[in-house]
Amino acid sequence: MSNEKNTQFIGHTKRLENRIAIVTGSDSGIGQAIAIAFAKEGADIVITKHKDSKGIEETRKAIQNAGQQVIIVELDQKNLSDIEKVYKETKEKLGVPTILVNNAATDSTGKQVKDMSIEEWDEKIRTNLYGPFYFCKNFIKQLELSDEKSNASIINITSVHQEIPRVGASDYCAAKGALRNLTYCIALEVAEKNITVNNIAPGMVLTPMNQEAIDNPKVKQEQVQSIPIKRAGEPNEIAHAAVFLASDDARYIHGTTLFIDGGLMLYQGQGA
Length: 272
Known about the structure:
By secondary structure, the chain is of the alpha/beta class. The protein has helices at about 30-40, 55-65, 80-95, 120-145, 170-190, 210-215, 215-225, 235-245; strands spanning about 20-25, 45-50, 70-75, 100, 150-155, 195-200, 255-260. It has a single domain (about 20-260), classed as Rossmann fold, CATH 3.40.50.720. Helix content is about 40%, strand content about 15%. A 7-stranded parallel sheet has the order 3-2-1-4-5-6-7, sandwiched between helices. Helix 4 links the parallel strand 4 and strand 5 (about 150-155). The longest helix has 28 residues, at about 120-145. It is globular, with a radius of gyration of 18 Å. The protein starts with 19 loop residues before the first strand and ends in a 12-residue tail after the last strand. Mean pLDDT is about 90; it is low at about 1-10.
């Protein structure tokens, strides 16, 4: 029997009770799953969207059904002023956030370097790297200026492509590799400030970035052949790990990457 649907939480222990979390890109996929999982564990949530009003409403309703407070902020994370707006609204309406999940990102153009315009390159780098940088910067500064004494966590959602290059994805791979190293540098900088900083690097997960595999079982079956366990992941499987990393159970996990990929990284170089 397939394990693909067996990805729901079994009970909730409120590991994030009285916490405030910002989860970017929470209108679908991994971000949506993380925001809802955090709410079920007792956190109030700030959810962000760029364009998907329907998806963000689904997230809002699920958080409210879990009994938690939620605010929605529309933004373009390429713009520092939009990120500053998120922190202003969060502080005014909920308080100082102690969890940050940088999930929002856009996929590659699919173009090789010789064919990619400077504007296309800049769009991907600013969204996938500058945006998380802006969020991390403001998160740390606000904590330092506050009286908040709770444990805090930054979780950046990178990708197996922080390590694995892909033809036609230099923009995406470069941004994710840089975000990995940004995470490690921040981890060193805040190591004594009660803030843990880590990456989660998903492999193939059934989100809108893999819509073709969702819509076409034949495509999905072909793509999962490169994954040792022969299936794609579900968003909730990433959310489970995010809850753990944000909780007090993971206070000694710092400055590292958790790959959640069904063993995909193990296949690199096999058969060479």
